[in-house]
Amino acid sequence: GDSVTQMEGPVTLSEEAFLTINCTYTATGYPSLFWYVQYPGEGLQLLLKATKADDKGSNKGFEATYRKETTSFHLEKGSVQVSDSAVYFCAPRLQTGGSYIPTFGRGTSLIVHP
Amino acid sequence: DTGVSQNPRHKITKRGQNVTFRCDPISEHNRLYWYRQTLGQGPEFLTYFQNEAQLEKSRLLSDRFSAERPKGSFSTLEIQRTEQGDSAMYLCASSRQGGLDTEAFFGQGTRLTVV
Known about the structure:
The structure holds 2 protein chains of 2 kinds. Chain A has no helices and 13 strands. Chain A has strands at 3-6, 11-14, 19-21, 23-26, 33-38, 45-50, 56-59, 62-65, 75-77, 86-90, 93-96, 99-102, 108-113. In chain A, the strands form 4 sheets. In chain A, strands 2-13-10-5-6 form a 5-stranded mixed sheet, with no helix packed on it. Chain A has a 4-stranded antiparallel sheet with strand order 3-9-8-7, with no helix packed on it. A two-stranded antiparallel ribbon of chain A has the order 1-4. In chain A, a hairpin with a 2-residue loop joins strand 7 (56-59) and strand 8. Chain A is globular and about 45 Å long. Chain A starts with a strand and ends with a strand. In chain A, 38% of the residues are buried. The model of chain A has no long low-confidence stretch (mean pLDDT 95). Chain B is built from no helices and 11 strands. The radius of gyration of chain B is 13 Å and the shape is globular. The mean pLDDT of chain B is 94.
């Protein structure tokens, strides 16, 4: 069935380092793709999205490109800050029964040190 | 727009008791989702409503779990005869009518502890 796989964490980086968090999925068709973020003590919130092949979603310096050929949606940021420390979730809308449901990866914890 | 509201925020119950959680979605949102999240894992989908119709419930964890959305507004999730394994964060999300690119907005969750 449809599923999502996200790289395990924690990812520990120094401030200003480059970040990549990998996400791949298996799906029927071409789902819309989302990254959500959960800051400490807060609820889940949308970070960025892409809805068709080669679309690039971006927000707060983060980017992810919809790669149809590799069924991937890797999250990147060129220079991370301490305030980016959070848990990041890849969440494509995958088919569940007859509906398309936001389906979450296990999450990747990012820890950024000064 | 006050966001998705969940009550209570925390619930401690004894094993074998029934519990009910409430979710109030964003007012114009007709889609509503319930998820369960355990420590170190991503949210696990449980059930989905479009207006008052429960369109997907195959992922409810057992027949002890049930959900309703009687008038297409707020929703309740009930767990009967709770077990220690039910301890988790229960999340509700809502989204507006539209295409498959619409964003889901999440509440803060209800943390259940079964003792």
